[in-house]
Amino acid sequence: MGLRRSFFLLSVVCLSMALLLTAGIYAACLKIGEGIPRGGIAISYDGTMTELEKPSPQQERIMEWLGRISMLTALVLPVGGLGMAGALFYKWKLKEPIRILREGTERIGMQDLDFTISAVSGDELGQVCAAFETMRGELQRTNQELWRQAEERRRLNAAFSHDLRNPVTVLKGTVKLLRQDIEDAVGREQALRRLETYTLRIERYVEAMSSIQRLEQMPVCRKGVDGTVLEQELEETASLFMAMHGPSAAAGEPSLRVSVLVQGVTGVNVDHGIFLTVAENLIGNAVRFAKREVKISLRQEERLLTLSVWDDGPGYPAWLVKEGPKPFGKAADTVHGKKAASADTVHFGMGLYSSRILCGKHGGVLRLENGTKEEGGGARAMAVFACQRDS
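User: That's the sequence. What structure does it adopt?
Assistant: Structure tokens below.
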């Protein structure tokens, strides 16, 4: 029932009750007044005049009060009936919706949107409460979307910062080799080619990352790549990471053995940049946490290209194997079960996380597991890419 109709009905009922009560009081006053003598003279039909009994002073005061009561009742009760109608209308129709809307406004003002506003009735105020609940829900969804976008941007920036470290590491290693005054013309040419390739890759990576809002939006550009090229790049990446993060012979640490095995890969259609980014993340982690040995294998079965990187380090934490890599996750500085020695080695889990996203973009998956006892434990990361043989 609408508010206007409710107020009209309440007013009619309360005013009717007030008028009935007024009429009852007026009738009672008349009945009481009938028993009180009025005084005066009575004239009969034959002209005889008889003096009537006069009221006593007390009876006169009663008559006066009866008149006042009748007059006040005729004025006060109808007005009181309308007032009671307003009070009942506020209590039954306005009080609860106003309270709910006031509390909702206060909570929204405190940035608290985790509540609901129920429609207490089907009238106009109930519709206002329903509209207010819709507005609250939209505000909550908007805030969640803004938070999600901010979180995605944070993850994107962290992945961008992390994935640039590996090409920079390669460039540093190449510059280091050039500073050693390579006399071999072939070696110098390879170093210059590597500088040019990685510089172009960084440029394209920066352009791609600046145009997207989420890491999942990174475009995939497949092209034919020969298996020997991938094998050579894996070997160069491993050697450069060993030079930067591997054991130091000067410190008396045992040397690190790295082996690369490529099986059945002739030519494949993959996104070369995504493949190298994932490979660098996995190889960098393996070299950083390995004790003596790192094994890298690349094989192709049907339309799947699998890159496997194993190291004999402490292995992955149980939570990482179970839940998978997460950005800024717990124990981010113990990716291989080993506490990071300094802030420079803390990567916040972004390397494995971005590798998982990139593998998914490429139609594949990233699997993490710990090595068996026969293998000597350690950690194994397998990056699978969906691809086709280059015809």
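Residues 44 and 50 are 8 Å apart (CA to CA).
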